[in-house]
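Internal ticket - ligand job 114, FE2/S2 (inorganic) cluster:
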Amino acid sequence: MSMREVANLSDLKPDEPTRVDVDGVPVCLVRVGDGVKAVHDTCSHQQWSLSEGMVWANGVECSLHGSTFDLDSGKPSSLPAIKAIPTFAVEVDGESVRIDVGAPTNDAPFPDHD
Ligand code: FES
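stdout (structure tokens):
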């Protein structure tokens, strides 16, 4: 796969996770200033959608049981989740936000998702 446009920068609100589906993969986008970070949208604990949670420091917090995942490493920083989630490189070019879900930036397994 290759970089694919997934959102417009101005549609992403700072500190508010946004879910997009890219080639069947749910992705959680978080705007940080003029940049964007992207992680798999599925919590590694019980497959909850992370975009329903909130941004906390450099992480996104799962709204079901409260695990927080680092937006750069994908690693959980609090229980009950113990497994990392995939992270993705993001390109921002003007308004265009692009990611490649075929090239995650860590080696976390893709969680099952609906
Ligand atoms: S489903 Fe996310 S912490 Fe339990």
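Auto-summary: The mean pLDDT is 95. The domain at 4-104 is CATH 2.102.10.10 (Rieske Iron-sulfur Protein).
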